[in-house]
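Hi! If you just cloned this repository, the fastest way to understand the data is to look at a raw example. We've pasted two of them here, unedited. The first protein comes first, obviously.
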Amino acid sequence: MTSLLLKTALILSLTLAVAASAAEAPKGSPAKVLRYAFPIAESGFDPAQISDVYSRIAAGNIFEAPLTYDFLARPAKLRPATAESLPEVSADFKTFTFRLKPGIHFADDPAFGGKKRELVAEDYVYSIKRHYDPRWKSPNLYNFENAKILGLNELRQKAIRTNQPFDYDTPAEGLRAIDRYTFVVKVAEPSPRLALAFADAGVSGAVAREVIEAAPDKAMEHPVGTGPYRLAQWRRSSLMVFERNPNYHEVRYEADPPADDPVSQAIAAKLRGRLLPMIDRIEVHIVEESQPRLLAFLNREHDWLDRLPPELSPPYVPNGELAPHLRKKGIQLERVPAVDVSYSYFGMENPVVGGYTPDKVALRRAIGLAYDVNAEITQARKGQGMPAQAIVPPQMSGYDPAFRSEMSEHDVGKARALLDLYGYIDRDGNGWRDHPDGSPLLIEYSSQPDQASRQLQELWRKAMDAIGVRVEFRIGKWPEQLKASRSGKLMMWGVAWSATQPDASDLLGLMYGPNKGQSNHARFDLPAFNQLYERQAAMPDGPEREALIREAKKIGVAYMPYKIITHRLLNDLMHPWVVGYRRHAFLRGWWQYVDIDLDVRQRALHEAALP
């Protein structure tokens, strides 16, 4: 009886999905709809204000940067988006000239007075300036500020000093539109990889000044871009619906997959020349708990599962292979190493765990040594990860597979000895260690309420119990923790950071002092590290730069502002009607490159109805 009810519910679900698709479609042709879930809620859609990966995925499909990535090329390769070509770069890596394609238009909006609004060079000038405007508190400012674009920081400091609105109309030497479709970026020091900052639409996507100024306080909820999709419906932290942007300029599927990748070669052959986007509607639900998210996929309510929850993975990807019962249903597996780090950071300005004196360094390193990385990988992540040795992950410049460090070491004896040596001992006989001055030592670790986070909390509690350190957990929703973290209010927090570009500077930037409150959530600020970071950033790729990156990684291990734990392995699952998906490490705006085969979906509905 139970199985009959489940099958009936499945048939009804699929029938309603097909009916809804037909209702949304142009007359005579059912719409193609992709449904899936984020495990964490979005924070908004404004490129000048967002930093989390989920919001950047959404924004990356609404807005367009001048550049993008080839969807299938591996290693990652830049290609033009709204630009006519890759930028012209001066021999000294200080001047970058971007020329835009004419005839690209924003999605319609009342702010345009009923007229079509063309994308022009001034839109990128304005959009980049917004990151410098103190009003928006941009968490992405470091992407441009570190490059030292001439004149922009001076405008920012003037606004801060005078407590006046940011002056968008005063020209800056380093960011100018020289004609309708051309803008030039000039920097104070060589920046060989600056073009990468203009390939993330969730950061450098173009917004229209009229839209922002019409309703400044609604910038996070009212995105208007030139990208393939527009926001059609939004129930905060519950559902986002995106529809094809009818003003999207003509883009055809084009990709350059590796010759030794037959899957990508077949995708390119099948889709080459197709008009983008191929899917009419995207529905993204927020499903925080792992089990309901998996069930929504298995019940065919969702078409694609963004990262099979690792704690649930053994029955579905045993030994890294798709399980036979899923393969029989035509389900596809995309298994790739993530270009990311999962870590727990220490608030370097926090009076308990922060600071640069030997005793504070010893406390952080002892806590790091007490934590069992392999236990997290085997127990919480079910083998879907590899121990990290430093902050730079595989598939990025600066990664060295031979590099070994204390990051992955688990040694409770050494941790206890470090604490004893620096005076963190039990002074009142209650069984818990105290500070060297005799005051109680208490670690406050921030985390989330979902089941996966609770498993990690237990591992941290076990680690702290083993060395006699009291720990309490501050539980909150992820967006709330993010806001508190950016303000420097958390003592410790465990999260992951996905790389946004294939260069080591992206991850090393998590320790660069001027990035405090942006990517540098630990608020680490060590002059010796900052100097190394700046030197390597100005160098072209080569052995000399690699040596500096290695030294920077060693400093991160020695001072331990971040306990770098794993580089994750990701398992995406797709139903057989999802066509063309490959996970790209850096491209957030990927929806337009995927298709839905309605015939295959219809056959699945028919088969589900069979007794």
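Ok, and the second one:
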Amino acid sequence: MAAPKKSRGPAGGQGRPGRSLALILIAMVALTGGMFLAHQPTPRLGIDLAGGTSITLEAKSEPGQESAINKTNMDTAVQIMERRVNGLGVSEAEVQTQGDRNIIVNIPKGTNSAQAREQVGTTAKLYFRPVLTVAQGTPTPTPSASSSGKPDASTSPSASAGDKGKATPNASATTQGRAVTDGLKADSTPDPKASGSAATTPSPSASAPSAEESAAATKLQQQFADLDCSSKASRSKAAQGAKPTDTVVACSSEGDAKYVLGPAEVSGTEVNNAKAGFDQQRGMWIVNMEFTKKGSKEFQTITKKLSAQPSPQNQFAIALDGEVVSAPQVNTTLSGSAEISGSFTQQSADDLANVLSYGALPLSFKEQSVTTVTAALGGEQLQAGLIAGAIGLALVIIYLVAYYRGLAFIALLSLLASGILTYTLMSLLGPAIGFALNLPAVCGAIVAIGITADSFIVYFERIRDEIREGRTLRPAVERAWPRARRTILVSDFVSFLAAAVLFVVTVGKVQGFAFTLGLTTLLDVVVVFLFTKPVMTLMARTKFFSSGHPWSGLDPKRLGAKPPLRRSRRVNAPTDPKEA
């Protein structure tokens, strides 16, 4: 005699739907609590909804370096700009390329837009150059070696000190053996060997400068004499287009002094770290820099040379984007670190440390346009998006109630659970990863309503198919689930894959749409498995649904259900003629 078969529980392990419901309810409570503990009760809004500033920067090519504007350098510039803006505490700012030459920077409301504009547009090319000559920042028709024509301020004797943009001039300046400034004389006498001149001492390898060198020196002398550092425009153009190996003229960042600077000895790329700090003894803000191993050796070499020179040739200029921010004297050999001091405020010191820490931009940029998006315009867009979402949700509800009747109640509960999870996650992702809700993201959330409702419809239709086959509701719920589950997973996988591809291949605001679509698609799977199916199992046990009430949406008569198929017993033919 065969042993009786053991009965199996309902398919899908839904004999205890309360466990799944408890799990998702705990998750919703935890996320809601975390949202309020993080003091983030609402999602962060992007620039198009909250308002802010949009800056368009156009890359500029230096003479002879047109090929420098390429995808690699543009991408590098975007990364550096992002780090600079993030260094200001603006995690939801957007920096992206547009075309081959433009970069768009979107800074949300609440940020110092002027400070951010200066940060993202500053090239931050830093060089340590020896000082050859210094004078007041006004034009000097006949450069004189007399001390009356020069600034009477001096720097600190330490290489880690010095007033910003000031230096101590010297009437007998030399250029440390460089035969490039033969025409830069401290007085009007043509004799370069005259006492008190700032003429160059020829290098041992050259008995006399060539005609080309003399012409270049004469041109440089005229540039230095004509240089007017009183305006910001002239200060920024003084060393424009110069190479690190060139001898250049430059202005102090305050415009009170002008310099002739030798070729760069140390590059700012060798700065490993920079921090702003306050010097209690001098009562001033300073920027401390630490060099790389290579930079430390280079800095040691140049300070050793400069410490043996007379003033002002014992000074090195710290030139940032062509302007001298400090020109301290060197009296001893230094290595490892340096200090920039001067007329810094806390903000300007922090800004300088920020740009030095995150590196120089590989390209120069000019500000093409600045657009301010008002909060009122963003509010109107958000209101329009919410109205569109409400209309879409209302149409879905009307369709569910009209066609599925009582089942619409389960669908609405599932939509509510999905909405709570989506809202809390968007709020928490703001401070966590810098997610900002923009208008395309709102559109993605609206599209998600249809994706979520589609999952319910697939499951409900599978249940109805089982009832049409003549099964009662409880077996129909369990038998329909495996078939509906496969369809739902395949559909959500396709939606998630599309969102992932869109997120990877696009930039900017479109990524907000893709991110929201992918997030809500994942939540759809969670809600259907842990909420919709368990709730449907519980509702199938109620009299309203199990009896096939006309308003339940599962009325067998309304669905055209077939009568239950019953297998008739087979009667064997009698073998005894008498029984026939």
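That's it. A detail worth noticing about the second one: Confidence is low (pLDDT under 50) at residues 4-14, 143-206.
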